[in-house]
Amino acid sequence: MVIPEDLLYTKDHEWGRREDTSLRVGISDYAQSELGDIVFVELEKMGTRVRPGEKIGTVESVKAVSEIFSPVSGAIIEVNDSLEQSPEMINTDCYGDAWMVLIAMDDPTETAHLMGAQAYRDYLEAEAK
Amino acid sequence: MKTPLYAEHQKLKARIVDFHGWDMPVWYSGIKQEHLATRSGAGLFDVSHMGEIRVQGKESVPFLDRILTRSIPDIQQGKVRYGFALNETGGIIDDLTIYCVRSGVEYLLCVNASNTAEVFSWMEQHNREGAELSDISSETALLALQGPQADTILSRVLEIDKWDHHPFTFTRYDSRAFGKLMVSQTGYTGAGGIEIFMDPHSVVPLWNALISLGAAPCGLGARDTLRLEMGYPLHGNDIDSTITPFEAGLGFAVDMKKADFLGKNALETVLSGGLTRRLTGLEMLEKGVPRHGCPCLKDDQQVGYVSSGSISPILDIGIALCYLENSVREGEEITVSIRERRCRARVKTPPFVAGTV
């Protein structure tokens, strides 16, 4: 299970990467491996305002549908449209090319609520028990 | 509940899901990969959760003939037939396969895992002929080896020249290494191949021997997409106790010429009134994966619903089985509402890909 040290994580298995006052968001290696072959991605539109826990997209594998939630409050200022054409990228490069949205944060200190890599690793281990 | 292969699934790092009380592998390497392996080579499925009910004694034939939709005397020894147990309204309690093990005196029914207990008690309740019934599910392991390479792999494992049998027949084979096997030329994938009923104590070595010769372990996920590409119905999704075989397009497995069977009167009434809906298929014309329960619309009016759907790994588009009103024709374009989004689809009678038993 790949858990990059420089990212932040949610209990719903999204990751976030601080880019100045914005947060780039995707789903973790654990999330993609649990979902299996991803066949469909639908993301919220550019400009959509979101709060923590609100939907930023839907990811569908052969077997299941899963919603992706925003880790923070803000506005979606970039959407990775290439995922609609190549949803399988999430299985192969979930921390890289398969990012989902970039959110301009209302309050950049909000990321303090998210888990670091070690905390997320501990959380996954606790969940597995 | 766990099948005798549970520890093997864990070793292979399968994703395990709860399937009607059974801890079953949903995939090992990935649903798409397993699906394609089955279509092009051989896939190996643990389907030991399926139920097996043995019916014995000279009362077997009159009993089964009266409760099931197929003509039992017409099934010769060594043959398998697909049929139904129906309720008093003609609805499908279960779809099952009927094996004539010894003509006139011994039959085996293979029933859906989720329905085993219900079917067995339904049979006991209707058994006025006094046939000998036993639920042998827990003493029976079942493997499905499916795909164009299945026969070759099996003959190599059993060290015989060639495994050559016809669809819907089965053979009892006493193998030195794996004990007594009942090998049936049947399946639920449309990829061709066999199903093997056997003693649970010998199933682990056979499972591993088949894998070592190239069979890819496959989970219930691939089993579902494979059967969906063929348009084979899944009980609980596409057929259930409120749906008759005729609505589901499965009239071939109902022998209306028989003097009587449970549900026959109800079916006659249904047929004389005319069918108002039918099971057919959809191919998506745009991105989107139709799922059980999605409404089907034509000119903004609901004309049916999706009973099961997924993506076709072969076609790489969304496909579905659905119930549609008779007014909707083959080839017509309709829409499917997927999470409030209207997606275009074309009505297409399955199979979606060419297959073989």
Describe this entry's structure for a reader.
The complex is a heterodimer of chains A (129) and B (357). Chain A has one domain (8-128): OB fold (Dihydrolipoamide Acetyltransferase, E2P) (Beta Barrel), CATH 2.40.50.100. Chain A is built from four helices and nine strands. Chain A has helices at 29-35, 82-85, 89-92, 117-128, and strands at 8-9, 14-19, 22-27, 38-43, 49-50, 55-61, 65-69, 74-79, 101-105. In chain A, the strands form two sheets. In chain A, strands 1-2-3-9-8-5 form a six-stranded antiparallel β-sheet. In chain A, strand 6 (55-61) and strand 7 form a beta hairpin. With 357 residues, chain B is an alpha+beta fold. Among the domains of chain B are: 6-48 and 140-230, Gyrase A, domain 2 (2-Layer Sandwich); 51-135, Aminomethyltransferase beta-barrel domains (Alpha-Beta Plaits, 2-Layer Sandwich), CATH 3.30.70. The radius of gyration of chain B is 20 Å and the shape is globular. Chain B starts with 5 loop residues before the first helix and ends in a 10-residue tail after the last strand. Chain A binds chain B through residues 34, 36-37, 39-40, 42, 58, 60-63, 65, 84, and chain B through 15, 26-27, 30-33, 221, 224-225, 287-289, 291, 310-311, 313, 339, 341.
What name is given to the CATH topology of the domain at 6-48 and 140-230 in chain B? Gyrase A, domain 2
Give the number of helices of chain B: 8
Mean pLDDT of chain B: 97
Instruction: Give the N-to-C terminal Cα separation of chain A.
Output: 16 Å
Q: What integer value in Å does the Rg of chain A equal?
A: 14 Å
Task: Classify the helix fraction of chain A into a percent range.
Answer: 10-25%
Overall shape of chain B: globular
- Structural class call of chain A reads alpha+beta
- Strand percent estimate of chain B: 25-35%
Oligomer: heterodimer
Uncertain ranges of chain B: none
CATH superfamily of the domain at 6-48 and 140-230 in chain B: Probable tRNA modification gtpase trme, domain 1
Order of helices and strands of chain A: EEEHEEEEEHHEH
Just name the CATH architecture of chain A: Beta Barrel
CATH class of chain A: Mainly Beta
- Counting helices, strands and paired strands, the structural category of chain B is alpha+beta
